[in-house]
Design brief:
Rossmann fold; 2 domains; four-stranded parallel beta sheet; 43% helix; 17% strand; Asp/Glu_race; Putative Asp/Glu racemase; racemase and epimerase activity, acting on amino acids and derivatives; Asp/Glu/hydantoin_racemase
Length: 267
């Protein structure tokens, strides 16, 4: 933890898996000198399966841990807690907190047909808070909530790296089935941090559709908190028997991302 002292007003990003590194990467591209703390709370994967009270406890615990590490802002990149608990706990937290919500409003504004597809996990789509969120911003547009849980698992397991061609075929079949069911939809919004890792595969599978992820919108919220540091990213993770640290480290190694994960106790 000694290296944390060298960071200048770091921004922390986290969720329960590999997904949040897409945010760390996007922050690095837009703000090259920003210091970043990346945290993968793998011991609590997946967040979407937790009760609201369980989610509050682990999200607040993660935020306070990152605050203790020196974060000037914490970005919760997972959609489930961002929609269900972040607004309730952010005032109790010792640092500013930004959530990441599905970019459905952007999808509705972009669509020319007035019909869009939202890709996420089934349990998120079943949450009353998520249903209310969708209804409040959809206006007259049709928003089809599609379960992409198998593709989320494909990313979290690392299959998209180790079996790239199999993943390409899987995404192609998935999108063919979705397009057949909703032929008028012209925009897909991504409601899982994991799916941002394979957005290029989505685009090749359905080149006539637009795919929108929540990263761009989140970057606008982050900008006021950015500062000039050394451009360092420090990476930490919890682990479980099902999701050991070595599995995540190997994924980054195979992706050619030169980071060294440091394991910290589960929250």
């Amino acid at each position: 933890m000694e290296n944390l002292k060298k960071l200048v007003k770091p921004i922390a990003v986290f969720d329960a898996g590999i997904g949040s590194y897409a945010w760390a990467r996007a922050i690095r591209e837009k703000f090259p000198k920003q210091d970043i703390i990346y945290f993968a709370d793998r011991a609590n994967f997946p967040y979407a399966w937790k009760t609201k009270d369980e989610l509050k406890a682990c999200i607040k615990g993660a935020i306070e841990r990152l605050a203790d590490m020196g974060a000037c802002l914490v970005v919760v990149t997972s959609n489930a807690p961002s929609i269900t608990v972040v607004s309730e706990i952010k005032e109790e937290c010792s640092v500013p907190v930004v959530g990441s919500i599905p970019p459905i409003a952007s999808g509705v504004a972009t669509s020319k047909t007035g019909e869009i597809i939202n890709l996420g996990v089934k349990i998120l789509s079943s949450l009353p808070e998520f249903r209310f969120f969708v209804e409040s911003i959809s206006d007259d547009a049709k928003v089809h909530l599609v379960n992409a849980e198998d593709l989320v698992t494909t990313v979290e397991s690392g299959q998209f790296i180790t079996e790239h061609e199999k993943t390409v075929e899987q995404v192609k079949k998935f999108m063919d089935d979705v397009r057949q069911k909703y032929p008028n939809a012209d925009v897909c919004t991504l409601s899982s941090t994991h799916l941002t890792w394979i957005v290029d595969i989505f685009q090749k599978a359905a080149p006539d559709m637009q795919f929108i992820n929540p990263v761009d919108r989140t970057l606008k919220k982050i900008e006021p908190y950015t500062s000039e540091g050394s451009g360092t990213t420090l990476s930490y993770a919890t682990s479980s028997e099902e999701y050991p640290l070595i599995g995540l480290q190997l994924m980054f190694d195979k992706l050619g991302i030169p980071i060294k994960l440091v394991e910290v106790p589960a929250i």
